[in-house]
Predict the structure.
Amino acid sequence: MELRKIFLLIALTLALLTLVDIAISKGFEAVLTKLDDGQFYKIDHTLHHNESDILIVGSSVAESGLNPPVFTDTLGMSCWNGARAEQTVRYFQAVTEEVLERYRPRLVILVVDNGRLQHPIMMNGVLKLKPFAHRDPELSRYLYPDSRFKQLMTRSSLVAYNSTILFFLRPMLTKSREFPIDDLGQYPRYNDYSGEPVRNLDVHVEADPLDSGQIEEHEKLLHAYIDAGVPVAMVTAPYYNPGIDPNPTKDQLNKWANDYPGVIYLDYSNDARFNHRNDYFSEEAHLNYNGSIAFSKSVAHDIKMWIAQHPDWLIR
């Protein structure tokens, strides 16, 4: 009899936790889906709603440095900046898988930071996808690639929203607006860079070797687009007064551009039109709003020239 009571208590507890989990899920989603700005809005829009012709993928350098309206004006195609700060190739892969299940962009602009392929992959940024994992279970493979148990646990709203809900509710708690609809995913920075450059142009620094994990995962990302027939413009953004390093990252990106039809590499990291203009930068590695307009015009122009030479690569 006692054993029966214990099993009944366990069953009631599990049922109660399930109801609480469902209630939390519905409550948070009812609130969050009404947001028209903030990080939850931006990630949700990128994963589930955006169908722009051009999709920008990258980290904070892309998020602040590329202005969607410039690409629309120059190329005549709608554009959404889906880049996210502090993200790496695992995040890009997860977002790409979700996007390509819904639609095929006509063009992807993939911003690869200078030296990115020479450093190990960091996993912490991918956790910003946790609140979406119970709705999109396939995201759990990128969140916890080595733990099937943790992947299953993300089906729970209690787990999915744990440690992230206040972060996503921040737009409701503060007056400042982050990622409003009108900015089309860009996070513009408005200050001018006034700090001292870390390196001078005439300094040569020994480059780190390529990281095999970065190479493997970036190739998987490229193949996801190539296999879907989506052309890719890989871009390295300008840096303020950068050093002229031997750079294996750039060598590898050039190799991929030469090896794969429909892929181009545009390198602006040492572009003299930008890298001495402190009025174009908010800090050494990030363009401010004025810099993003000038940079986006250059990228859009170069892509336009590329498309003119290879019109069959662009998805109609």
